[in-house]
């Protein structure tokens, strides 16, 4: 059924041109797969993907298009990403065959300490921390765009952001996902004057099929285009941002306790988005590159793949393949929770976590006949011993799942995998007054208190510190040539989602769009494994239970976008067929 659907989508694929500013936009189609020449774009939103394709068609490269798509997602997918947040940018240069990364993760203000979320000796309630100025980290997204365009782009920031400004000004058609996201957050959005004015006009979420415009965001983008990102980090936009953090625009009479943050203009001014060496492992005949700490994506996905490399997954039964995938997730998350944090504050053993020797010492804990139970203890990557553990088990803290990922390839073979976020759906809930964008709540990714009492926790807050992330933008090469690039939203489940799609595609030979659409499960060193209803309905679920796996049902896990190079030189872009309403793949010159 899936293959026939994909085939019909390919046959009917059309590139939809941007409408003039005076036209009334109709909802563009959501197409999960596109094949063609000249480059491809895959994102969660059709307007954003179309903007990316237009940039490529006009001679821009993958970096130019990625920034343009990201800016557009700040308009159409503002509850997942935007200039009030941060992310991680992974770039493949086809000429040099080099993979590079930009760390655009948010930072805590200089005043933050380990007790940032502690009051009267106890952690404050998580929901109260989220909807507050206290949770807002210094945003990294504008600086990421500047860094990427300077290093590898061919367009200016002015050129790359202009299409998103036009989109914000003329508006787009509200779909069911946008309407649901506002409705689900209506109670807290209503408690902020600026947020309710933008997203609850007349007191209700914008209707499906209506046109949504954000002139304040359009004006903010225009300011960035004219004055550069200094307008954000040292100018009027930044001053308005800091004021919203320090004195949230709360509606008079609200009963919600909204704590103020302590971000300063100096915190904004000192923010940098550094280049970092990517993580790299050898998996089968592939080189897999990812994001290094403070993201845990590259180390944790890399360790899980190294553990799985000890087994011929292509030859395993479907049950044994899934069993080993789940167990690898359990073990790699045990090590992530113990060892990974901001490398500027913690001695993160990145090289050792990614060594095959360490993975082998963990893989021997996997039994083909029985699942591990509960939370397992970490290993010691600096002194790996077969089947040995070191320290107490640590469960995985909660992370917000409403991130977004985009993947772009251009005519020259350059590729970008870019994951960006404001953390929770709707971030902190605070729209900067007069500026049209939501602020993140990324600092809630820190541990509020040590996860395991008496055990060092590398992810406690600190001044200028970057909270640990699970974002996993990933690029796979073979002999220096691009094979596959992908990523996903989903909080901590991002890591397992990427590993599941990679192993289905590379080991099991599943076509890319089918590997993305396949039912998912996510084991993150917990007693129960999160699983989608479709996964639990599969024939493999009962045999997995017989092995000792325990499951908790969840609606959706992740929302992948990906691109791959085909042997004849065409590109394939792939996205979700149904998760989050389906993704949007586009090709410059479609050639099914």
From TrEMBL:
Mind telling me what this protein is named? Glutathione hydrolase proenzyme
Query: Which pathway does UniProt place it in?
Result: Sulfur metabolism; glutathione metabolism
Q: Which reaction does it catalyse?
A: an S-substituted glutathione + H2O = an S-substituted L-cysteinylglycine + L-glutamate; an N-terminal (5-L-glutamyl)-[peptide] + an alpha-amino acid = 5-L-glutamyl amino acid + an N-terminal L-alpha-aminoacyl-[peptide]; glutathione + H2O = L-cysteinylglycine + L-glutamate
Short name of any one Pfam family annotated for the protein: G_glu_transpept
Q: How is it modified after translation?
A: Cleaved by autocatalysis into a large and a small subunit.
| Organism expressing this protein natively | Saccharothrix carnea
Q: What is its EC number?
A: 2.3.2.2, 3.4.19.13
* UniProt entry keywords in alphabetical sequence: Acyltransferase, Glutathione biosynthesis, Hydrolase, Signal, Transferase, Zymogen
Q: Biological process GO terms, please?
A: glutathione biosynthetic process; glutathione catabolic process
How the protein assembles, per its UniProt entry? Answer: This enzyme consists of two polypeptide chains, which are synthesized in precursor form from a single polypeptide.
* Region forming the signal peptide: 1-27
Q: Which residues form the active site?
A: 403 (nucleophile)
């Amino acid at each position: 059924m899936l293959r026939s659907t994909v085939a019909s989508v390919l046959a009917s694929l059309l590139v939809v041109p941007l409408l003039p500013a005076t036209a009334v936009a109709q909802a563009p189609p959501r197409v999960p797969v596109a094949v063609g020449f000249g480059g491809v774009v895959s994102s969660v939103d059709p307007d954003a993907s179309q903007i990316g394709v237009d940039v490529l068609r006009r001679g821009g490269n993958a970096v130019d298009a990625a920034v343009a798509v990201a800016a557009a997602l700040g308009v159409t997918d503002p509850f997942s990403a935007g200039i009030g947040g941060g992310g991680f940018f992974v770039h493949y240069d086809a000429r040099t065959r080099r993979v590079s990364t930009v760390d655009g993760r948010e930072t805590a203000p200089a005043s933050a300490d380990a007790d940032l979320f502690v009051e009267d000796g106890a952690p404050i309630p998580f929901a109260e921390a989220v909807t507050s100025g206290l949770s807002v980290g210094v945003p990294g997204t504008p600086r990421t765009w500047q860094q990427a365009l300077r290093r590898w782009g061919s367009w200016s920031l002015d050129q790359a952001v202009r299409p998103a400004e036009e989109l914000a000004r003329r508006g787009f058609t509200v779909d069911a996902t946008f309407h649901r996201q506002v409705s689900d957050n209506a109670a807290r959005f209503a408690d902020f004057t600026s947020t309710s004015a933008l997203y609850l006009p007349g007191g209700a979420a914008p209707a499906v099929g209506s046109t949504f415009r954000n002139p304040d965001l359009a004006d903010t983008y225009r300011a960035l285009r004219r004055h550069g990102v200094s307008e954000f980090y040292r100018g009027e936009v930044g001053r308005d941002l800091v004021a919203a953090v320090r004195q949230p625009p709360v509606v008079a009479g609200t009963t919600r306790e909204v704590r103020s943050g302590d971000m300063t203009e100096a915190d904004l001014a000192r923010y940098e988005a550094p280049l970092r060496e990517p993580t790299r492992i050898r998996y089968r005949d592939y080189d897999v590159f990812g994001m290094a700490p403070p993201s845990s994506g590259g180390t944790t996905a890399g360790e899980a793949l190294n553990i799985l490399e000890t087994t011929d997954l292509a030859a395993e039964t479907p049950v044994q393949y899934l069993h080993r995938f789940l167990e690898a997730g359990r073990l790699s998350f045990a090590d992530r929770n113990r060892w990974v944090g901001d490398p500027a504050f913690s001695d993160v053993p990145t090289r050792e976590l990614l060594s095959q020797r360490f993975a082998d010492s963990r893989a021997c804990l996997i039994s083909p006949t029985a699942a591990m139970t509960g939370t397992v203890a970490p290993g010691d990557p600096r002194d790996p011993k077969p089947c040995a553990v070191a320290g107490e088990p640590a469960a995985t803290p909660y992370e917000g799942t409403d991130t977004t990922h985009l993947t772009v390839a251009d005519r020259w073979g350059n590729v970008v995998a870019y994951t960006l976020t404001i953390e929770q759906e709707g971030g902190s809930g605070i729209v900067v007054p007069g500026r049209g964008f939501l602020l993140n709540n990324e600092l809630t990714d820190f541990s509020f208190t040590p996860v395991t009492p008496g055990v060092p926790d590398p992810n406690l807050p600190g001044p200028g510190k970057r909270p640990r992330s699970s974002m996993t933008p990933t690029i796979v090469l073979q002999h220096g040539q691009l094979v596959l690039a992908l990523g996903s939203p989903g909080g901590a489940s991002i890591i397992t989602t990427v590993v599941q799609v990679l192993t289905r595609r590379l080991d099991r030979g599943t076509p890319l769009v089918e590997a993305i659409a396949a039912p998912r499960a996510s084991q993150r060193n917990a007693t129960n494994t999160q699983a989608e209803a479709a996964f639990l309905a599969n024939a493999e679920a009962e045999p997995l239970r017989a092995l000792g796996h325990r499951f908790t049902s969840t609606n959706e896990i992740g929302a992948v976008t990906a691109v791959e190079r085909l042997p004849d030189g065409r590109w394939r872009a792939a996205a979700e067929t149904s998760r989050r309403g389906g993704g949007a793949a586009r090709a410059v010159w479609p050639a099914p």
